[in-house]
Amino acid sequence: MATPHIAAEPGDFAPDVLMPGDPRRAQRIAESVLTDARLVTEVRGILGYTGTWQGRPVSVLASGMGVPSISIYATELYRFFGVRRIVRIGTAGGMAPHLQVGDIVVATAAHTDSAVTANRLPGVHYSHAPAFALAAAAVEAGRRIEGARVHAGAVLTSDAFYADRGSLTAALVAHGTLAVEMEAAGLYSMADAEGAQALAIMSVSDLLFRDESLSAAEREGLFDVAVQLGLAALAAG
Questions:
Q1: Residue-by-residue DSSP string for 40-96
Q2: Could you give the maximum distance between any two Cα atoms of the chain, in Å?
Q3: Long-range contacts of range 75-80, CB-CB < 8 Å, 24 or more positions apart?
Q4: Is 113 a catalytic residue?
Q5: What is the secondary structure of 164-200 as a DSSP string?
Q6: Are strands 35-41 and 85-94 parallel, antiparallel or unpaired?
Q7: 178 near 99, Cβ under 8 Å?
Q8: Which has the higher per-residue pLDDT, 83 or 163?
Q9: Which of these is catalytic: 113, 159, 206, 224?
Q10: What is the mean pLDDT of residues 68-82?
């Protein structure tokens, strides 16, 4: 049953989905990680594949950028295609001063300046949180990867990429926020609304407090680590 944004049939998607933002990264996961991957959707250039990993069916679908985009794709996967677990694999800007480029952040909460959740639940200060089992499994898997620096904590999901937050950044860090990105809160909200599970795992690609960032090649290496954590979380979940 095709939806406005996904041209697939019932059964085309596995219950477990990895969700990078970039369609090319979805293709890379399908070609380098999954076995016997097949293309199941490509509407608007958003690529989705289904294959197996260690004998388990796993799908991968790009989300595009931002809360509205990931909310659409997550809702359609959960509601119409039988998906039960989605793990976002992305990047984030490090806010907390103890972070380094190359670190991995498992988002155990997602604050947001987006109005998407507030519009659905007016008057409620909604807490965006992942499925605990997925988060715990990802952190545990990170301990088994030599050299991986994995942090668990809150992130800020922002609608604005180019934003001067001034003193707000320091206030968020003082309240335990690790990094800023653009999708986790939307994904967590949709998972809750659809009675499903979600997790966001981000590689720290740059720092807000120091002029330091990763090259494209370095980002791809970190992406591989985040994919490993995501697959481990899905297997445990």
A1: EE-GGG--EEEEEETTEEEEEE---SSHHHHHHHHHHHHHHS---EEEEEEEEEE-S
A2: 50
A3: 75/190, 75/193, 75/194, 76/3, 76/4, 76/5, 76/6, 77/6, 77/13, 77/17, 78/190, 78/191, 78/194, 78/195, 78/196, 79/194, 80/1, 80/3, 80/6
A4: no
A5: --THHHHHHHHTTEEEEESSHHHHHHHHHHTT-EEEE
A6: unpaired
A7: yes
A8: 83
A9: 206
A10: 97
152 with 106: CB under 8 angstroms? yes
| Nearest-5° Cα angle at 118, 117 to 119 | 90
Mean pLDDT of 64-86: 97
Distance CA 89, CA 91 (A): 7
Q: Which residue has the tokens 């001067």?
A: 164
For residue 107, the 8-state DSSP code is E
Within 13 Å and on the Cβ side, how many CA atoms surround 69? 17
| Cα 237 to Cα 136: distance, rounded to the nearest angstrom | 10
Q: Per residue in 14-63, pLDDT tens?
A: 999 999 999 999 999 999 999 999 999 999 999 999 999 999 999 999 99
